[in-house]
């Protein structure tokens, strides 16, 4: 059960007080009228007992939220007593407020219970009011008007309940969508950080090893390896800044330029500078520009595949980028070093995920001592 806030509880108390005062005023207006039309001056004259019964009609409204059933019973009984004693107060608004309360409750009792109790009480009141006992007989309008008022109160409460349920469902849906967006953002950030930082660390390790080995034998290549380390570190910091900016600012940072297939050549050159035998072949010419998500996905897949080839391969790899008219095909093949196992860690799963996100597919397997990664990325999602 949800506990209302202090402001909400104060508003509810003020609402109940206002409703109780209105019911009391409406009942006293009838009570002091001495009847209307043919019954004018025939009803029982106002007295203390009648005033007390009028108060009992209105007072239960103050407790309608905490004890609705006792409140309904008391206000019905007070209305029946007013009619039985001949007072001119046959239209009872107290049950209308209670019926609204029952109907508006999110978790309410079966409909027939409050309606059945109210109908039974009204039947008793109507039977007493029409009995030929010299009391205040009810006229036809006085039969219909309470039914109309009470039915309208129930319908209004039911509409209020439906609105609250719909608002709660919409709020829950918005919360779920927000949680889904957060989860997707976390997954994307984790994937980007893995690809960027993992590739950078591996490249730095390879370049640092090359610089150490070539320091005496080939100082020029050693210097190029050190320069490559500096460039990779700088680019990785820029990439991480972009990822963090996207995390902080949402889509505002999504317009930042992302590397695509044109940057794969730079990846290959870095590995070559470290002494690895990596080659790149670009085929085909698409009839239209490659969509940015597909272009970036191909770059990240190539980046991860080359990183795996450098870590687990024998120092060589072949990259083929085939730019077709309807899809981009990327293939990375490298010989596998002894005891190396392809597909370990999170890299392979990340590559598959990137391919799936753009509607493509990825196949990675070992064949005849080689490990091959093949990604098919359509320009239009499937």
Please, could you describe this protein's structure?
With 382 residues, the protein is α+β, with helices and mostly antiparallel strands. Among the domains are: 6-138, no CATH class; 260-382, Heat Shock Protein 90 (2-Layer Sandwich). 62% of the residues lie in helices and 10% in strands. It contains ten helices and five strands. It has helices spanning 6-33, 48-58, 68-84, 94-104, 112-130, 140-217, 219-249, 264-273, 292-312, 347-357, and strands spanning 277-283, 316-323, 327-335, 361-367, 370-378. It has a five-stranded mixed sheet with strand order 1-2-3-5-4, with helices on one face. Strand 4 (361-367) and strand 5 (370-378) form a beta hairpin. The radius of gyration is 40 Å and the shape is rod-shaped. The relative contact order is 0.06.
Chain-wise SSE layout:
Blueprint: H1 6-33, H2 48-58, H3 68-84, H4 94-104, H5 112-130, H6 140-217, H7 219-249, H8 264-273, E1 277-283, H9 292-312, E2 316-323, E3 327-335, H10 347-357, E4 361-367, E5 370-378
Parallel strand pairs: 1-2
Antiparallel strand pairs: 2-3, 3-5, 4-5
């Amino acid at each position: 059960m949800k506990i209302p806030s202090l402001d909400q509880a104060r508003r509810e108390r003020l609402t109940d007080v206002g409703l109780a005062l209105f019911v009391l005023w409406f009942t006293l207006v009838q009570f002091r009228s001495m009847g209307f039309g043919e019954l004018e001056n025939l009803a029982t004259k106002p007295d203390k007992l009648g005033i007390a019964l009028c108060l009992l009609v209105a007072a239960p409204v103050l407790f309608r939220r905490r004890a609705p059933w006792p409140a309904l019973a008391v206000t019905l009984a007070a209305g029946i007593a007013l009619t039985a004693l001949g007072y001119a107060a046959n239209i009872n608004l107290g049950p209308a407020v209670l019926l609204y309360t029952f109907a508006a409750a999110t978790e309410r009792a079966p409909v027939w219970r409050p309606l059945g109790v109210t109908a039974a009480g009204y039947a008793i009141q109507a039977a007493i009011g029409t009995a030929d006992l010299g009391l205040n007989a009810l006229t036809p309008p006085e039969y219909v008007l309470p039914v109309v008022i009470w039915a309208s109160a129930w319908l209004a409460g039911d509409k209020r309940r439906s609105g609250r349920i719909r608002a709660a469902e919409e709020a829950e849906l918005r919360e779920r969508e927000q949680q889904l967006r957060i989860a997707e953002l976390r997954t994307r950030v984790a994937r980007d950080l893995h690809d960027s930082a993992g590739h950078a660390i591996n490249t730095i390790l390879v370049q640092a090893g090359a610089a150490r080995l070539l320091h005496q034998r080939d100082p020029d290549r050693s210097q190029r390896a050190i320069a490559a380390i500096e460039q990779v570190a700088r680019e990785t910091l820029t990439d991480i800044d972009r990822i963090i900016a996207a995390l902080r600012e949402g889509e505002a940072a999504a317009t930042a330029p992302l590397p695509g297939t044109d940057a794969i050549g730079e990846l290959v050159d870095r590995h070559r500078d470290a002494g690895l035998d990596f080659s790149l072949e670009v085929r085909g010419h698409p009839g239209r520009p490659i969509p940015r998500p597909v272009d970036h996905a191909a770059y990240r897949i190539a980046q991860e595949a080359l990183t795996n080839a450098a870590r687990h391969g024998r120092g060589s790899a072949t990259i083929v980028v085939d730019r077709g008219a309807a899809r981009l095909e990327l293939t990375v093949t490298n010989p596998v070093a002894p005891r190396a196992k392809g597909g370990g860690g999170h890299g392979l799963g990340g590559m598959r995920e990137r391919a799936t996100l753009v509607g493509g597919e990825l196949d990675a397997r070992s064949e005849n001592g080689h490990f091959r990664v093949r990604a098919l990325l359509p320009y239009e999602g499937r």
